[in-house]
């Protein structure tokens, strides 16, 4: 299987791939924030701002991601 060079890909495909990468990165950040919140609630991590703040951050990341990039395949 040959891997395509980024610059040889059509621009619309580059856009789709870039958006998907950003969506996945945002989801990873949101998931990590939720995991940290759960660890704080269990007492395994010090609470320095609170689980609710992390959950708010996760919600903001997800909402911003959905608004800015839309759903995949709907460019």
- Mean pLDDT across residues: 80
- Main β-sheet: number of strands, strand sense, barrel status? none
Q: What's the alpha carbon Rg, rounded to whole Å?
A: 17 Å
Helix proportion: 55-70%
Measured between the Cα atoms of the first and last residue, the distance is 28 Å
Tell me which oligomeric state these chains represent.
single chain
How many DSSP E strands? 0
The secondary structure category is mainly alpha
Can you count the helices?
2
Q: Order of SSEs, N→C?
A: HH
- Strand residue percentage: under 5%
The shape is: elongated
Residue windows where pLDDT falls under 50 for at least 5 positions: none
Tell me what the structure shows.
With 75 residues, this protein is an all-alpha fold. 68% of the residues lie in helices and 0% in strands. The protein is built from two helices and no strands. The chain has helices at residues 11-42, 51-69. The longest helix has 32 residues, at 11-42. It is elongated. It starts with 10 loop residues before the first helix and ends in a 6-residue tail after the last helix.
């Amino acid at each position: 299987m040959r891997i395509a060079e980024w610059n040889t890909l059509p621009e619309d495909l580059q856009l789709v791939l870039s958006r998907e990468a950003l969506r996945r990165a945002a989801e990873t950040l949101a998931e990590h924030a939720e995991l940290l919140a759960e660890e704080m609630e269990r007492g395994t991590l010090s609470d320095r701002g609170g689980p609710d703040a992390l959950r708010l951050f996760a919600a903001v990341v997800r909402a911003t991601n959905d608004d800015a990039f839309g759903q995949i395949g709907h460019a």
